[in-house]
Design brief:
Largest sheet: 5 strands, antiparallel
Membrane topology: Peripheral membrane protein
GO biological process, one term: intracellular protein transport
Helix content: 40-55%
Organism: Urochloa decumbens
InterPro entries: Adaptor_Complx_Large_Subunit, AP1_complex_gsu, ARM-like, ARM-type_fold, Clathrin/coatomer_adapt-like_N, Clathrin_a/b/g-adaptin_app_Ig, Clathrin_app_Ig-like_sf, GAE_dom
Strand content: 5-15%
Radius of gyration: 39 Å
Subcellular location: Cytoplasmic vesicle, Clathrin-coated vesicle membrane; Golgi apparatus
Structural class: alpha+beta
Distance between the termini: 98 Å
Strand order of the largest sheet: 3-4-5-8-7
Length: about 900
């Protein structure tokens, strides 16, 4: 019996499901929600859609609105409902309000402006816009404001203009909102709504006022003529609206947390900012009402804070008086003391913009901003740190730096990187004396050395090299810091470098400053410090290599510790790291077999040119920024390089003196750069100029021969060269035989005999390979006719070519830039892009200022390797950016007239 009843119930259920079209919307929703799987839901929707199709084909008008309601729900679930688009039009054409309401709702949900069916609804919309029933007119305006296309806007804009003059408040409000859509779609129609928008600002109803202000804002964006018209006709109305709202009594209809209509406040303030920007007369007319809003609005509620924030934005955006700006910045200062993180964040954002307007007023809140740097919220910390960086000047740099460095000791590890970078930038930019600079950098290295970047260490070493009177103080300070903070990577590298260079100053307390406490350190202590750094497990390859170089130099500085140093270096002969193993073997050979030349070989590093380094660093930074802006995505073969971006590869000679990166092999391709090559960059030593074809390996050349600038004669298939980017390289002096200086040369052989044996034409310096004047190239150049690569009414670019017979794929291009105008070009940057089969390297330009009228030019070298030489010609796209009379300009073109054969 139970089975029979169950069968009857299932049959009745199937009948009910098969006749969905007669069910109500709530029944369909209940059935869909009762589905336990997606397959069941699809089955229910499929049966319902079939029932709706049947009802449409049988033309059942009384079920049309119910079917449309179901279709809208099905559409929101993500199922296709395109088969019922015409039902929307039928419902819209019906006479009753309920049918039209569902029809217009379906029109807005199921269709958009790209559907061709909308062409059929234009006439129905026009009829409904002229309907005597205001509710039907409201439906048509709402639909038009949501799906209006450009054609519909042109056809129906006269009706919307007429309805903006209606007596009905709701009709005027909806017509104003609909006109915003029309202006966005067809900006040419903006002039038709200017007078109407200005007249609506005289209304009393807040809904109409908000709609009118929104329309005025859109008109200002769409047309300059509308902006000027509204400046003349709307300022008085906006001031009156703000005054009425601010002084109005309590009205429950518009009250939000005790604030009278904050939405109208904010809309009016935004429009004021647009109208007053760049217009002194309008701004002067607004000053009083802005001051009133800023002083009378309560700041203990979110609605009031929103109005105050918008008021501050308006004050900063117009030509306000200085007193009003100070008032606005004081409001932001109060925001910084608020407990709400969002309010503090937006206040910091606004202060960063306000500092360009009135830096002195922002400086008054420096203490509060510094407290925000220590906030628990990471986003507030970062934004406050950026603001502090903008606040620093010559007068407050010392107290601000002290505060930041003190906080560095307790800062979160995730925040230390950003904080360290900003502190280093501040100290470098505003340091007035070298002693203060060194003290601050030593503190940063001690507290956050692992977060200090290599270029900062590079700059510090350059300063130390030039500050001869502070070298003793520096090595003692770094020695003491190394004892206390030996795990900070950058501190270890800088300290080891200083101990290796100035170890005797540490031991003998040379160059003591007034008030400095002497350091008790023996030669053994100095060696111990380097040995501990070398043996520390956390030390990377770069640090280990620098420790070995420092030990090698200490073996010359401290003869009594020479044997111990030799033992320490010898322990690394079997190091699993090939770089350290190689250095250990080479250094041990120098200490054992070449005593007579060791002192000359390991003498102190020459003073580095600080000025040229600063210029080079600034050029590289500017080029990097330009490359990021102009070429955010770089693909092989489409590489874009700015002035001086490319760095030459490292050289075995450079490896021997620890002047290259240890993260990459010594012989690298010309386009390869390494992140840790700051010491190589420190001496300005170029690497081996090599390409993918035609240049043999230099592994057979003795390392010490390279050190003494003794190389083999240039061969036809290419010779290793060492040189600076953008500088003519010189050939390696030829030797009659390859001399194994590390093997067959006895330790008693004087240097003079080596010179005589090598038959060099000039006196040889042991560190000749480090001099920029002895950069080597040694290859004959093959000339090609010059071409005019680019010429415009303002700029002319000429290319001169030189080729190397040993490597016919490689061409050196000498570019000359000439200014043809009467205005001097500044901040000149040249960029180039080549196809994938071409390799390109740009050398630093000779300058970034091109004088007017051709009175002087700047030059730049380009090295091009055509890997399909003979099959495909050279091709290049170029781009030049510069400033003329303070205006930024950009020119670009394509060079395709290269000489044949390149």
């Amino acid at each position: 019996m139970d089975t029979v009843e169950k069968i009857v119930e299932d049959f009745a259920s199937d009948i009910a499901m098969s006749s969905f079209s007669g069910t109500r919307l709530r029944d369909m929703i209940r059935a869909i929600r009762a589905c336990k799987t997606a397959a069941e839901e699809r089955a229910v929707v499929r049966r319902e859609c079939a029932a709706i199709r049947t009802s449409i084909s049988e033309n059942e008008p009384h079920l049309r609105h119910r079917n449309m309601a179901k279709l809208m729900f099905i559409h929101m679930l993500g199922y296709p409902t395109h088969f019922a688009q015409m039902e929307c039009l039928k419902l819209i054409a019906a006479a009753g309000f309920p049918e039209k309401r569902v029809g217009y709702l379906g029109l807005m949900l199921l269709l958009d402006e790209r559907q061709e069916v909308l062409m059929l609804v234009t006439n129905s919309l026009k009829q409904d816009l002229n309907h005597p029933n205001q509710f039907i007119v409201g439906l048509a305006l709402c639909a038009l404001g949501n799906i209006c296309s450009a054609e519909m806007a042109r056809d129906l804009s006269p009706e919307v203009e007429r309805l903006m003059r209606s007596r009905e408040v709701n009709t005027k409000k909806k017509a104003a909102l609909c006109s915003i859509r029309i202006v966005r779609k067809v900006p040419d129609l903006a002039e038709n709504f200017m007078a109407l928008a200005a007249s609506l600002l005289k209304e009393k109803h807040h809904g109409v006022l908000i709609s009118a202000i929104q329309l005025c804002t859109e008109l200002c964006k769409a047309s300059k003529d509308a902006l000027e018209y509204l400046r003349k006709n709307c300022i008085e109305g906006l001031v009156r609206i703000l005054r009425d709202v601010s002084n109005s009594s309590y009205a429950p209809e518009y009250d939000v947390s005790g604030i009278a209509d904050p939405f109208l406040h904010i809309r009016a303030l935004k429009l004021m900012r647009i109208l007053g920007q760049g217009d002194a007369d309008c701004s002067e007319y607004m000053n009083d009402i802005l001051a009133q809003v800023a002083t009378k609005t309560e700041s203990n509620k979110n609605a009031g804070n929103a109005i105050l924030y918008e008021c501050v934005q308006t004050i900063m955006g117009i030509e306000a008086t200085s007193g009003l700006r100070v008032l606005a910045i004081n409001i932001l200062g109060r925001f910084l003391s608020n407990r709400d993180n969002n309010i503090r964040y937006v206040a910091l954002n606004m202060l960063m913009r306000a500092i360009t307007v009135d830096a002195l007023a922002v400086q008054r809140h420096r203490t509060t901003i510094l407290e925000c740097v220590k906030d628990a919220d990471a986003s507030i910390r970062k934004r406050a740190l950026e603001l502090v960086f903008l606040l620093v000047n010559d007068t407050n740099v010392k107290p601000l730096s002290k505060e930041l460095i003190d906080y560095l000791n307790i800062a979160d590890p995730d925040f230390k990187g950003d904080l360290t970078a900003k502190i280093c930038s501040i100290v470098e930019k505003f340091s007035q004396e070298k002693l203060w600079y060194l003290d601050q950098m030593f503190k940063v290295l001690s507290l956050a050395g692992s977060h200090v970047k290599d270029d900062v260490c590079h700059a510090l070493i350059v300063v130390l090299s030039n500050a001869s009177e502070l070298q003793g103080y520096s090595v003692r300070s770094l020695y003491k810091a190394l004892q206390a903070y030996g795990k900070q990577g950058s501190l270890v590298r800088v300290a080891v470098w200083c101990i290796g260079e100035y170890g005797e100053m540490l031991v003998n307390n040379v160059g003591m400053l007034d008030g400095e406490e002497p350091v008790t350190a023996t030669e053994s202590d100095a060696v111990d410090a380097v040995e501990v750094a070398l043996n520390r497990r956390s030390a990377d390859v770069t640090t280990g290599a620098m420790c070995l170089v420092a030990l090698l130099k200490l073996s010359s500085r401290f003869p009594s510790a020479s044997e111990r140093v030799r033992q320490i270096v010898g322990r690394n002969k079997e190091n699993v790291v090939l770089e350290l193993q190689q250095r250990s073997i080479e250094f041990s050979s120098i200490m054992q077999k070449h005593q007579s030349i060791r002192s000359s070989l390991l003498e102190r590093m020459p003073v580095l040119d600080e000025a040229s380094y600063l210029v080079k660093r600034a050029t590289a930074t500017q080029a990097t920024i330009s490359a990021d802006k102009l070429a955010p995505a770089v693909t092989p073969g489409g590489l874009k390089l700015s002035n001086g971006v490319a760095k030459p590869p490292s050289d075995p000679l450079v490896d021997l003196l620890d002047l290259s990166s240890d993260d990459a092999p010594a012989s690298t391709i010309a386009s390869t750069t390494t992140p840790n090559d700051f010491l190589q960059d420190l001496l300005g030593i170029g690497g081996v100029s090599s390409s993918t074809a035609g240049v043999p390996s230099t592994a057979s050349t003795d390392i010490l021969m390279d050190l003494l600038s003794i190389g083999s004669s240039p061969s036809q298939n290419g010779t290793p060269v060492v040189g600076h980017p953008g500088q003519e390289s010189k050939p390696i002096p030829a030797a009659p035989e390859a001399i194994d200086l590390l093997g067959s040369l006895s330790s008693s052989t004087p240097v003079s005999e080596i010179k005589a044996t090598s038959a060099l034409p000039q006196a040889m310096d042991l560190l000749d390979g480090l001099s920029s004047s002895t950069s080597v190239s040694g290859l004959e150049k093959t000339a090609h006719p010059s071409i005019t690569a680019f010429q415009s009414p303002t700029l002319k670019i000429t290319f001169d070519f030189k080729r190397q017979p040993g490597n016919p794929r490689e061409t050196t291009i000498h570019a000359t830039f000439t200014n043809l105008t009467s205005s001097t070009f500044t901040d000149f940057i040249f960029q180039a892009a080549v196809p994938k089969f071409i390799q390109l390297r740009l050398d630093p330009a000779s300058g970034n200022t091109v004088l007017a009228n051709g009175n002087g030019s700047i030059t730049q070298g380009l090295n091009v390797t055509n890997n399909q030489q003979g099959q495909k010609p050279l091709a290049m796209r170029i781009r030049m950016s510069y400033k003329a009379n303070g205006e930024e300009r950009l020119e670009q073109g394509q060079v395709s007239n290269f000489p044949s054969g390149l």
